[in-house]
Model the fold of this input.
Amino acid sequence: MKITVNDTLLDLHNGARVRDAIAGFYKHEGRKVPERLPVAEDRYGNIVAPDGALTDGNALFILSGRKKRTRLIRLLVVILAAGLLFACSSTRHAATSPDMKKQGSTTVAAPAGTVAPDDRQAVIFSVNDMHAAIDNFPKLAWIVDSLRSVYPNLLLIAAGDNQTGNPVNDQFPEKGFPVIDLMNAVGFNLSAVGNHEFDTGPEGFGNLISKADFSFICANVSGGGRHPLKIDPYKIITLPNGLKVAFLGLLQLGQNGIPDSHPDNVRDFVFRSPCETALEYLWLKDSSDVFIALTHIGFEEDVKLAETMPPGIDLIIGGHSHTRVDREQVHNGILITQADSKLKFGTLIRLKVDAAGRVTRSMQLIDIRNSKKEKPEIRSMVDRYNDNPVLNQVIATATDDFSSYEELGYLMADAQRAAAGADIALMNPGGVRIDQLPKGPVTIKNVYQLDPFGNELVVTKLTGSEIFSLLRAAWPVDEKSPVYTSGITTGTRVNDQGDPEEIKILTNDGKPLDMNQVYTVAMNSYMTQVYRYEHADPGQSLFFTTAEALIRYLKQEGNLRSYRGEKRVRVIR
Done:
């Protein structure tokens, strides 16, 4: 996919994240990637999280030096554009309520004056991309309870990607259930379907849906083969004051026409364009007082959706890009919100409908992390899940000690090669974070100590010549250390300065690697963006992490063979 960073065009692998784009930018500039990634914003001035998803054509801006002036100008343009849109809006328009506090507050003020029982008002608290951040649920619960004391009919909404990101949840015997259990306890009303909802597979996702006390909605997915999902395209909620609020669910699609999930997880489903699908449901505006698109397509795609829609949609509550929208963003008369990720923030939205059907809207970003209070009952639930021996689960037995980064790097490469069904796998030495693993039981906790970064597994087609280019390019990035391999062995002759003069690559049967042959190569997403090497294929993410690949491999192997004395990479000085 094509992404611009500070106006520099980058060609990234499909499924790339913000952190990959930042790393790719520094690679392009010939600079070392900072250990602490800089803050990045989208073209609309919103902060985006490093693990935020990207779509083709996105633009990012890294804030440094002269770029800050550019940012200010860009923000001014956005604010002026929003003002013009507001001025031109008709029956359904946005306005800011004077009683809303500045973003960052966890204390929500009641509206100015009294709220009559028959006041036609809908109040929503929305989160997105929770990614199994269960430790923040007690704070979320306290904030939600506080809001409900002011707004008894508050709607609690999730914009998808509730799952994946916490081993306590992801490795639970009933994978993904802790999040559903906590969402039930806090009282969610509705959730969009995110791409990571499919990580448990059709059967697993269907089981989680059956356990949920709330509805999942998505209009642009159908099918499911033997495991059809009980998902409605939309939901109309009638509030006690008689106000009808319609939600339409929309899910992102990648360049391959499926959500960002492993193809095996979505094989039996049919997906359609979210924008085209939305146009088919415009009739919902005539069946409701408030019409909301609950999307998981990314903020920039939400803007495109708003710009293609005729008048009718009042609000877009979005997810997927992990965008922190901390000020009102109005595009084509439609207010668009998103609240970062992992329950760090939530968005309070108020919608009021007057006698003429005009909708007044306001939003406030609320900092969940900084809440000083928690709901005790939810804290107890979280503690029980965290006390669950999931991380201590033994998944394999090492028949010998692993006594070096090199040995563990070979193990990781073997696991990635197996998970991707690749000819070759490559593992950067800096991605191996422990140098010892004693003989005996291997736990899930050991895996996350070894591979803590959350990099996704990427598979790409490379010629022998391109693999050679990669190995040469990796040398200075990895502080003059060779890449760990599976499927090939390498011998690197270096000069007095420690730079490679010659690299020999052999296949497992001892033959030289064919420079013209195309090989399937697996590596982590960090490597695809940081190594400056010649390649035609940008690669495709398999949408699971290298840690998950290692867990699967260890479970399959059971008893790990000894890697003692194995030399797949040699350096000749």
User: Anything to note?
Assistant: Residues 65-69, 77-118 have pLDDT under 50 and may be disordered. The two ends are 40 Å apart (CA to CA). The domain at 90-96+119-386 is CATH 3.60.21.10 (Purple Acid Phosphatase; chain A, domain 2). The chain is about 25% helix and 25% strand.
